[in-house]
UniProtKB/TrEMBL annotation:
Lineage: Bacteria, Bacillati, Bacillota, Clostridia, Eubacteriales
Reaction catalysed by this enzyme: O-phospho-L-tyrosyl-[protein] + H2O = L-tyrosyl-[protein] + phosphate
Keyword Cell inner membrane: no
Protein name (database record): protein-tyrosine-phosphatase
InterPro entries (alphabetical): LMW_PTPase (IPR050438), Ptyr_pPase (IPR023485), Ptyr_pPase_sf (IPR036196), Tyr_phospatase_low_mol_wt (IPR017867)
Phosphotyrosine protein phosphatase I domain segment(s): 2-145
């Protein structure tokens, strides 16, 4: 069983979107993976998915019910196989929180695509559709990569 935690700054936009999109992809494949998400800051802990993100996901039939921001903790490191951030700051913060990455578990989502780059925070850019498209692409690429590794 593969265990993935998606991480972004507040866990109200990018990482919950990635979590819920990946859960849908994994469910369609009939896989029994653990997928979750967290924030690398405590600023939004306890808040629900941000309304523009919720609207995009609900338009696709993906419910955000019960998803509230949680903060990443050092104790999470042994419980997951992959920690997938959205941008370089997320990666740096994860490494700081974990005190390093001795098992090479920390990565960026779009590193699994043919054109790696950061996913800009739509909280600031207001371009939620672009973030959605990049998260869709990244989740599909991550799923392909991990499925290939599973069968190797």
């Amino acid at each position: 069983m593969i265990r993935i935690m998606f991480v972004c700054t507040g866990n109200i936009c990018r990482s919950p979107m990635a979590e819920l999109v990946m859960k849908q992809l994994v469910r369609k494949e009939g896989l029994d993976w653990v997928i979750s998400s967290a924030a690398n800051t405590g600023d939004e802990v306890g808040n629900p998915v941000y309304p523009p993100v919720r609207a995009l996901l609900e338009a696709r039939g993906i419910s955000c019910k019960g998803k509230y921001s949680v903060q990443l903790r050092r104790e999470d490191y042994p419980n997951y196989d992959y920690f997938i951030g959205m941008d370089a700051r997320n990666r740096r913060d994860m490494l700081r929180i974990f005190g390093g990455d001795p098992e090479n578990k920390v990565h960026l989502l779009l590193d699994y695509t043919d054109h790696p780059h950061e996913i800009a925070d739509p909280w600031y850019t207001r371009d939620f559709r672009k973030a959605e498209a990049e998260i869709d692409e990244g989740c599909a690429a991550l799923l392909r990569t991990l499925r290939t590794q599973e069968t190797a």
